[in-house]
Amino acid sequence: MDWRGKHVLVTGGAGFIGSTAADALLARGARVTVFDNFSTGFREFLPTGEGVRLVEADLLDAAKINEAMRGVDFVFHLAANADIKDNLEEPRKCVDQNILATYNVLEAMRAAGVKDIVFSSTGSVYGDATVIPTPEDAPFPVQTSLYATSKVAAEGLLTSYAFGYGFHVWIFRFVSLLGPRYTHGHVVDFWRKLKRDPTRLHVLGDGKQQKSYLHVADCVSALLTAVDRAHEPINVMNLGHDYWIEVDASIALIARTMGVSPRLEYGGGDRGWVGDSPKILLDTTRLRRLGWAPTKTIEESIVETLRFLMETPYVERRG
Amino acid sequence: MDWRGKHVLVTGGAGFIGSTAADALLARGARVTVFDNFSTGFREFLPTGEGVRLVEADLLDAAKINEAMRGVDFVFHLAANADIKDNLEEPRKCVDQNILATYNVLEAMRAAGVKDIVFSSTGSVYGDATVIPTPEDAPFPVQTSLYATSKVAAEGLLTSYAFGYGFHVWIFRFVSLLGPRYTHGHVVDFWRKLKRDPTRLHVLGDGKQQKSYLHVADCVSALLTAVDRAHEPINVMNLGHDYWIEVDASIALIARTMGVSPRLEYGGGDRGWVGDSPKILLDTTRLRRLGWAPTKTIEESIVETLRFLMETPYVERRG
Fold it and tell me: What is A7-177+215-239's CATH superfamily?
């Protein structure tokens, strides 16, 4: 796809994934409107230069997203409440920020005649997957978390708009991402705790959860590759690495990189939190058939994430 | 389950399925609170007698459902916007009446400490099913309609509340129901058209769509059987007959029962409307293993539906 001169709206464009995607689109000659409420985004991540517009607003404000959508050619809808672990404390957040926000984006697109959208869903939609690596057409899963439920709902809204209104949708079921601008998740949690007390580390679950991760640059290259090469009205694709690592291995690498040797204290149980999927490894055959492959290992990605956290003090001020 | 003295809240209790379920619960000795906004329900369907309470309100009014939930033991959440065919004209309806309404019911339950809920989902969640008869763990489907999307979202909310808050949930994926108090769907559509003009009938699609149907009494007996005998925290079950009939066969039976011989005019295409699933036959092994079986054929159910429509003039005044 020739992005030159295309006007792309990136929701969550001040966030980890959104800002990285915005940079990549700008580098390919697109104009970018960043739509972000800065609930978790950082001004420091914002792309700069000509061709960038910032709309500071919440997606629940329908008038604002309707207005921002005018003249847009393509949408990257990457804004979300990604706080899986804590969503039971405030269930409304997932409903609002992931379901209603997505509905507002789609309605704004419909009103403005915009039909192309990339969407970040999650590998958590497979719940306690019975097939691993999990393909996109795995057995219909039971949803175990509000976060995954809200993403399944958003996926359904997108595909219904494809059937009903002629939209073209690219839905990616992400594993957890790592890399520069990562500000939220297990690496930052462990890093914070170890900075506070390098002698011990409390670990949710039993340390044996196995999960795949992907570097954010490999993620963005996957999104752009798929838009280039997958042209069905509805494209649903897993996105992840072809192996997983145990939480314990991840901790060992983090500790080594930080130069600390904590005693580990396990919370117990086989999952990190209620609704956690203890094993996440996605079958990415569909995406690989398009010619995409990850370029960084999970271990490299963890180390790079830590380097970013250590070199970027403003990230710590938040959260 | 001994329903005597139990207080059951039935959302949509003035509707086709809800009022039939309410009657069955009352007959088993339960007290029933009917919660209905009368958007499609009928006062004539309301159960009567001691032990019945009516709350006339909308599920989007959180204060009202919160208040109605006090002292309740069990919820039958059967209220929904069931207008699959027209949801593209007003997409917000499915989001509000099926997703947000379900969220409000669950939050009211959580606040009141109520944990048991029966929920009417739909066989449409399987989209264009690739396995027929379709089992509950069929390949993860792509959602083709806003209606099915909203039901998938509601299912996920229920199962997330089971994981997160210890709810017990019985989720039934319904085929279309037939029988007394049926006021909405293909039989009433054909009946209305044929009363207006018995010489011809416009048929959506090509008349070859094949769908399973179930009598509402068999549906309600299935719900009660499952609550009695299935005790997992999460119970997901298909609900339908073990065969299907073609739209053309359904029309022939309706015409014969009405004593008319219309010329058929087909709208064309292999589905009735955008997002319609042209083939619906569910694998009901799970439910049958509990000892349930349908007692009425689809043909009997169609004829009984027509008799009800012919004998119940007030139904025609609506819609």
Answer: NAD(P)-binding Rossmann-like Domain (3.40.50.720)
Whether A138 contacts chain B with CB within 8 A: yes
> Which H or E element spans position A250?
helix A247-258
Q: Is the CB of A138 less than 8 angstroms away from the CB of B142?
A: no
At B278 the pLDDT is 83
Residues of chain A contacting residue B148, judged by C-beta atoms under 8 Å apart: 156, 160
Q: How confident is the model over B13-31, as pLDDT tens digits? A: 999 999 999 999 999 999 9
Single-letter amino acid code for the residue at A180: P
Residue A268 confidence (pLDDT): 87
Q: Which helix (H) or strand (E) holds A221?
A: helix A216-229
Q: What are B282's strand-pairing partners?
A: B134
Contact assignment for A145 to B164 by CB distance below 8 Å: yes
Catalytically active residues of A, by annotation: 147
The pLDDT value given to residue A137: 97
Could A156 and B136 be called an inter-chain contact, meaning their C-beta atoms sit closer than 8 Å?
A: no
pLDDT along chain B (319 residues), means of 10: 96 98 98 97 93 97 98 98 83 96 98 98 95 97 96 98 98 97 91 95 92 97 98 98 96 96 92 83 98 98 96 77
How is domain B7-175+215-239 classified at the architecture level of CATH?
Answer: 3-Layer(aba) Sandwich (3.40)
Cβ burial, residue B205 (10 Å; 0-12/13-18/19+):
middle
Q: Which residue of A has its CA nearest to B90?
A: A107
**Ranges in chain A annotated CATH 3.90.25.10:** 178-211+243-317
* pTM, full prediction: 0.96
Q: State whether B95 and A107 contact (CB < 8 Å).
A: no
Give pLDDT, residue B150.
98
Cα angle, residue A213 at apex, residues A207 and A216 outer, rounded to 5°? 145
User: Which residues of B fall within a CB distance of 8 Å from A282?
Assistant: none
Positions of B marked active-site: 147
Considering only CB atoms, A146 lies closest to which of B136, B137, B160, namely: B160
Residue A225 contacts B where some CB pair is shorter than 8 Å: no
Beta carbons of A159 and B165 less than 8 Å apart:
no
CB-based contact B21:B36 (threshold 8 Å): no
Best CATH choice for the domain A178-211+243-317 from the list 3.30.230.20, 3.90.25.10, 3.40.50.10490, 3.40.50.10470: 3.90.25.10
pLDDT digits (tens, 9 = 90+) for A25-65: 999 999 999 999 999 999 999 999 889 999 999 999 999 99
- For residues B79 and B16, what is the distance between their CA atoms, to the nearest angstrom? 10
Query: With 90 as the cut, is the pLDDT of residue A94 above it?
Result: yes
Cβ-Cβ contacts under 8 Å, A153 against chain B = 99, 149-150, 152-153, 156
